[in-house]
TrEMBL record, chain A:
Superkingdom assignment: Bacteria
Entry protein name: Putative ABC transport system ATP-binding protein
Domain ABC transporter: 357-604
Transmembrane segments: 40-61, 73-95, 156-175, 181-200, 263-287
Subcellular locations according to the entry: Cell membrane
Cellular component aspect of the GO annotation: plasma membrane
Organism expressing this protein natively: Actinoplanes lutulentus
Segments forming domain ABC transmembrane type-1: 41-325
Keywords associated with the record: ATP-binding, Membrane, Nucleotide-binding, Transmembrane, Transmembrane helix
InterPro entries membership: AAA+_ATPase, ABC1_TM_dom, ABC1_TM_sf, ABC_transporter-like_ATP-bd, ABC_transporter-like_CS, P-loop_NTPase, Type_1_exporter
Membrane topology: Multi-pass membrane protein
Automatic annotation (TrEMBL), chain B:
InterPro entries: AAA+_ATPase (IPR003593), ABC1_TM_dom (IPR011527), ABC1_TM_sf (IPR036640), ABC_transporter-like_ATP-bd (IPR003439), ABC_transporter-like_CS (IPR017871), P-loop_NTPase (IPR027417), Type_1_exporter (IPR039421)
Source organism of this protein record: Actinoplanes lutulentus
Keyword set, alphabetical order: ATP-binding, Membrane, Nucleotide-binding, Transmembrane, Transmembrane helix
Protein name: ABC-type multidrug transport system fused ATPase/permease subunit
Domain ABC transporter: 357-591
Topology in membrane: Multi-pass membrane protein
PANTHER family in alphabetical order: ATP-BINDING CASSETTE SUB-FAMILY B (PTHR24221), ATP-BINDING CASSETTE SUB-FAMILY B MEMBER 6 (PTHR24221:SF654)
GO CC aspect terms: plasma membrane
Molecular functions (GO terms): ABC-type transporter activity; ATP binding; ATP hydrolysis activity; ATPase-coupled lipid transmembrane transporter activity
Lineage of the organism: Bacteria, Bacillati, Actinomycetota, Actinomycetes, Micromonosporales
SUPFAM superfamilies: ABC transporter transmembrane region, P-loop containing nucleoside triphosphate hydrolases
Length: 608, 609
């Protein structure tokens, strides 16, 4: 009664990740988990011993019957059998431990390498793959392998060994009897494989219908307020009913092939038993009846062996789906690990001090979409404060993404601190972006700010765990003081030790920006890119953000994606983006005085 | 809520109220009596065929194999009988396997579907307070995985019933052949059952550990990946690896702890029947020699012992699923038993004109916390009222209670003089349209999203879209009104969603329109446009309007402004009269650079330059 999961899961790798074909799977798996290669021979031997132990019973029976069941011959046969059972048990135990230890250590390695790779692969790739997909490659996909291993994977190995041994013994007893058994098995395998494909298809449909049901339920739960306020519960109930019925019906459709397949195995066992029973007796007597070709013990043993041969066969065919599932999971995590790292190992270091930026004839696009930046050229001096303004879709956020290597230019060059951007060994800590809605790790405010401390986090290794040690706590407090955040923190129930919640959701957007600014200040970068929040910042926090920002930007090159006039007013220079080009550049007062895009923008701001 | 239309293949809802997983499975059977009866009968027959099959092999050994190979003449009828017995019993076995499988599946999947339907329908009728206490993730788990768990033992139920029957038959048969054989059989059965139960006992806590460790690994992985930009930007890859490693190690250790149990028990369970065969051989051989047992008897017994592993495995799998099923049942039943359903009265509203809303000493308490107290407010028909206040001041609660979306804990809310609690079902949704802070769209076409359960001419939809400044959005979409938006409207931007939601509210031609910070994602130009068309609508005899906002734009069209602080209405008046209130002034002028707090701005400027 095994439930095959899938033989037809979509095979394509996520965009940007390495794709691994079925053929290169094994070599890739061994490349990333070399421990799997060691001691294969011993593993194979253990499997044979374990599988062989299961066949002790028919062999002992044969010995006992043929010796006329005389106690003095039965005793040695039983003793030999008992030893064989003990050996088989021990082998099975060792095989079990050995395989699981090897595979689990390989999987643990895959998980850690995978997470590292997520963080050092090209940012543009990481952005393209949905987070949920990446997470599943480190979690549920890997768990599939363990689940398979524990729920039948080891048996898969011992069953294969048992099948092999039973087949060999049958052929030794009488190849003439083994031939019809093997032929019937071949017929059984091919029919079962065909059926298995049908089962897999129907299960795939059932899974799709179940996930549709899941989305409909999720939607009706999330949309409950809308459903209630519009009085449309009946409409949603109809939709849900359909999804429930469909999921049930598609599950019901799996029953016939699933149980048909199991029944088929029993049909085969029945036919084979009769073949061996009658055929065995007939064949033994077909030559010289006085000297039968087979003893009665051998015929009886053959009858038993049929069962010992067909049951593992059934098991193997029916577990194929699960095996496939486990392999797919393994392959998906390998795809992540095999994706090349973006780390520039032989790159140049950035010069110390504030960094200038030189952008020459740069164009950019997303995927194969239209150009969103057209041959852009601009030079930003070290220490200059630049505000970038423009309407939604003008290309200003793409510009910011270019500078942090989140988008790769399709043409042109970008130099930061005089070094070509793609030749810089690491931007970490030197070029830092503060996004519109910064991400905070679950933990305290202090933990999150402390992440900015250059490299202390490595030894300490936690963002969410214990509080930072004494010295780093001092650093956090100093930076909070410098940025003028003490008043804001004093207003929080636990000050620096306030828990921010998952993704920092217990803080408002503005407050998250404050934490991100402090974190950035501690990192002491030389180029800061700041994406201003558009709405939802309450006035009190907004004032604090402006003050902290003013402190942070001193002595550094800054580029602010501005959504409000105050930011543009206070910048050294304003770059006005429109349609993927810089259409105006200059100080606020100069640009505001003459008609143009900037003046129009100021009008819109004033009317807010 | 209407009653469900009876459609194809619906069965009865199993009554799972009585408190155990086993009783729940029985209830599932009672709800589907036909398939349950077939599954029971075929299960029993199947169990019997396993014992009969072993006997047939034994009979054939005694009457065919041994005499024929000893050189005795065996009549043709014996050959035919042997073949007939083995094939006949095999036919009975495989046909019952097939039929039992089909009927079991019917019982399981039908019971599952009906329970699921009941849970989901209950969600639709439970009131907002209940929904607020339960996260969407949990509700989804109740409807999907808990229902699955509840009915999962069913897949082995009839198999297990048949196997219990088989064991009884087999032991009887063994005792009948020779008491000592029966004893060996009984010991084997007891031993295997005891091992299985110990195995499950040992495995269960380790499985929970593994599940917990998986949770930790998943949590850290998700957070680290979502925080990827921070990790890159600050160079935290090593730190993240160090944070991830303990969880990974813990999971590996937990997986191996499970493996260390299974590596002992699996071989034991696998080889015990073989060991029993050896014991039987040792004790039975002398009896065969004495002639008190035939060779066939011995072969039959061995055959039986070898096959006994299957039923024991099935029974233990069935038993091991019961705890999970019980936990699932409790969670499912908690939903089905909750009685916090929406309550309604029986009164109707008369006129089609704009609604008058009166709040009298209205208060809302949630988890012992008063989030709105003593609110007195009248929304005159056809006026625009704007509520302002800091984040967390109680604006949303005021809007919810005034719009009849929630009922007050104290005081009253009246629509056209009728207490909202006395209104019959459907009256509030017909009269009031709400656009909330987070715009929600169904993963359907825009047409369906706008019309919902009504059938409206396209002209009406376009008119509403125009008023919500959303007509351009729809016109630019490849399929126009037939465009299917992604899950929760994900293919549209926040601002676009807000406007579509506004259009959805307008198309219902409400008598009261409630906008809870519903223009926050619009840029100021579009916001002005939307507010202007709203003002036109009201001037043309349109709805009474209640708006909450943090932004000053909406104040321009307000007849009245209400300032809320810490759950209380602290000031009401015309927009200009309220300018004397400092808090109000600060809120509505925060984003206007010209009126900005000069000191703060000056500060910022000196620092930047």
């Amino acid at each position: 009664m095994r439930v095959p999961m899938s033989l037809d899961r979509p095979e394509a790798a996520a965009p940007g990740l390495s794709s691994i074909s079925g053929r290169s799977f094994l070599t890739t798996a061994l490349r990333f988990s070399p421990q799997l290669r060691q001691g294969l021979l011993v593993t194979g031997l253990l499997a044979l011993l374990a599988g062989g132990g299961r066949i002790v019973a028919p062999l002992t029976i044969q010995q006992a019957i043929d010796s006329g069941l005389a106690p003095h011959t039965v005793a040695p046969a039983v003793t030999v059998g008992a030893i064989a059972v003990l050996v088989a048990g021990a082998s099975s135990l060792l095989l079990n431990r050995r395989l699981q230890e090897k595979v689990e250590s390989a999987l643990a390695g895959l998980r850690r390498d995978g997470l590292r790779r997520v963080h050092d692969m090209a940012a543009s790739t990481a952005d393209r793959v949905p987070s949920a997909d990446l997470v599943s490659r480190l979690t549920s996909d890997v768990d599939q392998v363990t689940t398979f291993l524990q729920g039948g994977g080891i048996q898969f190995v011992t069953n294969a060994a048992q099948l092999l041994i039973a087949g060999v013994i049958m052929s030794v007893f009488s190849w003439q009897l083994a031939v019809p058994v093997l032929l019937l098995s071949a017929l059984l395998i091919s029919t079962m494989m065909l059926m298995q494909r049908v089962i897999a298809r129907r299960y795939a449909q059932a899974r799709r219908d179940l996930s549709r049901l899941q989305s409909v339920v999720a939607e009706s739960v999330a949309g409950a307020p809308v459903i209630r306020s519009t009085g449309t519960a009946a409409r949603t109930a109809r939709k849900l009913d359909d999804a429930v019925d469909q999921a049930r019906d598609s599950l019901l459709r799996t029953l016939v092939p699933l149980h048909g397949n199991t029944a088929l195995g029993e049909v085969t066992i029945g036919v084979m038993t009769v073949t061996v029973l009658l055929g065995g007796v007939w064949f033994s007597l077909a030559g010289d009846p006085a000297q039968p070709r087979l003893s009665s013990g051998e015929v009886v043993a053959m009858i038993f062996l049929v069962t010992f041969f067909v049951r593992p066969l059934q098991f193997l065919v029916q577990s194929l789906g699960e095996a496939q599932n486990a392999l797919t999971g393994w392959r998906r995590s390998l795809e992540l690990v095999a994706t090349p790292s973006e780390a520039v190992t032989d790159g140049s270091a950035l010069p110390p001090g504030p960094l200038g930026v030189r952008v020459t004839q740069v164009s950019a696009r997303y995927g194969s979409g239209p150009l969103v930046l057209h041959a852009l050229s601009v030079e930003i001096e070290p220490g200059e404060h630049v505000a970038v303004v423009g309407r939604t879709g003008s290309g200003k956020s793409t510009f910011a993404k270019l500078l942090t290597r989140r988008v790769v230019p399709s043409a042109g060059t970008i130099c930061v601190g005089g070094v070509a951007l793609d030749r810089i060994a690491s931007l970490a800590g030197r070029v830092v972006i503060v996004p519109q809605d910064p991400f905070l790790f679950d933990g305290t405010i202090a933990d999150n700010i402390n992440l900015g401390t250059p490299h202390t986090a490595v030894s300490q290794g936690n963002a969410a765990g214990a509080s930072p040690s004494g010295s780093s706590r001092d650093g956090v407090e100093r930076i909070v003081d410098e940025l003028g955040l003490s008043d804001w923190l004093a207003g929080l129930p636990d000050g620096l030790d306030t828990q921010v919640g998952l993704r920092g959701e217990r803080l408002s957007v503005g407050e998250r920006q404050l934490v991100a600014l402090a974190r950035t200040a501690l990192a002491d970068p030389d180029l800061v890119i700041f994406d201003e929040a558009t709405s939802g910042v309450d006035p009190a926090t907004d004032v604090a953000v402006q003050k902290a920002l003013a402190v942070l930007t001193r002595g550094r090159t800054t580029i602010a994606i501005a959504h409000r006039m105050i930011t543009a007013e206070t910048a050294d220079r304003v770059l006005v983006f429109d349609g993927g080009r810089i259409v105006q550049s200059g100080h606020h007062s100069a640009l505001a005085a003459r008609p143009g895009r900037y003046a129009a923008l100021i009008d819109a701001w004033r009317n807010q | 809520m209407s009653t469900p239309p009876e459609s194809r293949g619906r069965s009865t809802l199993p009554d799972t109220r009585r408190g155990s997983a086993l009783l729940a499975q029985l209830a599932g059977a009672r709800a589907n009596p036909g398939p349950a009866a077939v599954a029971t009968v075929t299960g029993l027959i199947n169990g019997a065929t396993m014992v009969a099959g072993a006997s047939a092999i034994g009979w054939s050994t005694d009457h065919l194999v041994v005499p024929a190979l000893a050189g005795d003449a065996v009549p043709a009828s014996i050959w035919w009988t042997s073949a007939g017995l083995v094939l006949g019993i095999s036919a009975a076995r495989w046909s019952t396997i097939f039929v039992r499988g089909l009927s079991t599946g019917r019982v399981q999947y039908r019971a599952q579907a009906e329970t699921r339907r009941a849970v989901i329908r209950r969600y639709l009728s439970l009131d907002p307070a209940w929904h607020r206490r339960h996260s969407p993730g949990r509700l989804l788990a109740h409807a999907i995985s808990d229902v699955d768990a509840l009915w999962s033992p069913m897949q082995f139920a009839y198999f297990a019933v048949g196997m219990v029957f088989m064991l009884l038959l087999a032991l009887t048969e063994l005792f009948f052949r020779a008491p000592v054989l029966g004893l060996v059989g009984l010991v084997l059965v007891l031993l295997v059952l005891a091992l299985n139960i110990t195995y499950q006992r040992l495995l269960a806590p380790r499985a929970r550990d593994t599940q917990a460790a998986r949770g930790v690994v998943g949590g850290v992985a998700l957070e680290s990946i979502e925080g990827g930009p921070v990790v890159r930007s600050l160079g935290l890859t090593d730190a993240e690896d160090a944070r991830f490693a303990p969880g990974v190690q813990r999971l590996r250790a937990a997986d191996l702890r499970m493996a260390s149990i299974s590596s002992i028990f699996d071989p034991l369970l696998e080889l015990l029947p073989t060991a029993a065969v050896l014991v039987v051989l040792a004790v039975a051989a002398p009896r065969v020699q004495q002639g008190s047992l035939s060779v066939g008897d011995l072969v039959g017994v061995v055959y039986l012992l070898i096959t006994v592993a299957i039923p024991l495995n099935v029974i233990s799998r069935f038993l091991s699923m019961l705890p999970m099923s019980g936990a699932g049942r409790e969670r499912v039943q908690a939903v089905l038993d909750s009685d916090e359903v929406l309550r309604h009265g029986s009164r109707h509203l008369e006129q089609p004109s704009p609604l008058r809303v009166d709040l009298r000493s209205t208060g809302v308490t949630r988890r012992h916390r008063q989030i709105l107290r003593d609110a007195d407010l009248t929304l005159e028909p056809g006026t625009v009222t704007v509520v302002v206040g800091a984040v967390g001041s109680g604006k949303t609660t005021l809007l919810d209670v005034a719009g009849g979306q929630i009922h007050p804990t104290t005081g009253t809310v009246a629509f056209d003089g009728v207490d909202v609690r006395e209104l019959t079902a459907g009256v509030v949704p017909d009269a009031v349209a709400v656009v909330s802070q987070s715009p929600f769209l169904f993963a359907e076409s825009l047409r369906d999203n706008l019309a919902l359960d009504r059938s409206l001419p396209d002209a009406d939809l376009w008119e509403a879209l125009r008023a919500a400044a959303a007509d351009d959005i729809v016109r630019e979409l490849p399929d126009g009104l037939d465009t299917v938006v992604g899950e929760r409207g994900a293919t549209l931007s926040g601002g676009q969603r807000q406007r579509i939601c506004l259009a959805r509210a307008l198309v219902r031609k409400p008598r009261l329109l409630v906008l809870d910070d519903a223009t926050s994602a619009l840029d100021s130009r579009v916001e002005q446009q939307v507010l202007a068309s709203l003002a036109d609508l009201v001037a043309d005899g349109g709805p009474t309007v209640l708006i909450s906002t943090n932004r000053p734009g909406a104040v321009a069209i307000a007849d009245r402004v209400v300032l809320v602080r810490a759950g209380r209405i602290v000031a009401t008046g015309t927009p200009s009269s309220l300018l004397d209130v400092e808090e109000y002034r600060r809120i509505v002028t925060a984003y206007r650079p010209a009126d900005r707090d000069e000191e703060a701005a000056g500060d910022a400027r000196t620092h930047v330059s």
